């Protein structure tokens, strides 16, 4: 009963208010909401650019994805069958029988080879100088300073080109221990100090 | 059965020949390859010892061997051989050298005419394998002078001297003890031991 009564009461109140409105009876202006009309400019959405963040600085490249453990290990150590990046001992080093330096197996000894190469180039230069522009028709015999032709019949030497080198035969050890060596004796006059300590 | 014996048509080379040639790539293609090889063969005949990359040396070596063996087989009165020599030797005075110097040198040998040595590699850094290519019987110092069995090698000379000295002392000792019974047999065995010491090798 009471809800119906209040509903009717509410309806009547509404009707009364609407009637007052129609004939110009408004509530006093002081009670009205204050409203200020303001027309805001519509913001244009800006495009994203890195410059806004970075400014004057610069960015470094960074990985995008995590590198897997397998890949990390492969990069670090390689593969034994293909490229093995670990340090492995080299077992093919030999000692030169002539000079005692080390060299790789099945390769010439570097120490001996540089010596021989230098000598070879000298002889080549000498041959070229001696020959000039003549046709090459004779074999070459190289003689060093103070050397004579080895014992051979005269026919053997016929038609051989003899190239004389302007120095003594390079020999680190001469045949006879009593023979003069190619190395000159030292001329230094330094005296070894005695009575020290 | 009415066929020529192939082995008698072509000189059998005394070096190993690969089943397929190397291309020696370059901008000029196959023609450039032949040019390179001609230069190398000419250089080899001229200087008798050259250092170069392995591939090119091994390839040029085969052509040089073939050229020399043809020259030995046919001599200088054979037109095709002369043409071959003319093609492969860019400096024409080397044609004289081929027939007048190299043919007599290699006529009676049954070894290859050239030798190929691996040159030492630099310790650090990467590089192509270098080799030394040379004609046998050249006037330059020998590249492999292994004198370990040479009696004039300083170690062998010193060892010989030491052995000799030891023997002398033993003989002197023996001479001293001569006549004393039982002492001679002992020294004899010691001398035998000294004889058995081998040379360095």
Compact summary:
The complex is a heterodimer of chains A (197) and B (201). With 197 residues, chain A is α+β, with helices and mostly antiparallel strands. Helices cover 31% and strands 8% of the residues of chain A.
How would you describe what is shown here?
The complex is a heterodimer of chains A (about 200) and B (about 200). Chain A is built from 5 helices and 4 strands. Chain A has about 200 residues and is of the alpha+beta class. Chain A is rod-shaped and about 155 Å long. In chain A, strand 1 and strand 2 form a beta hairpin. Among the domains of chain A are: about 1-30; about 110-165, no CATH class. In chain B, helix 2 (about 30-45) crosses helix 3 (about 55-75), helix 3 packs across helix 5 and helix 6 (about 155-175) packs antiparallel against helix 7. Chain B starts with 5 loop residues before the first helix and ends in a 5-residue tail after the last helix. Chain B folds into 2 domains: about 10-135, Ribosomal protein L17 (50s Ribosomal Protein L17, Chain: A, Alpha-Beta Complex), CATH 3.90.1030.10; about 155-195. With about 200 residues, chain B is mainly alpha-helical. Helices cover about 50% and strands about 10% of the residues of chain B. The mean pLDDT of chain B is about 85. Chain B has a 3-stranded antiparallel β-sheet with strand order 1-3-2, covered by helices on one side. The interface of A and B includes residues 97, 98 and 117 of A.
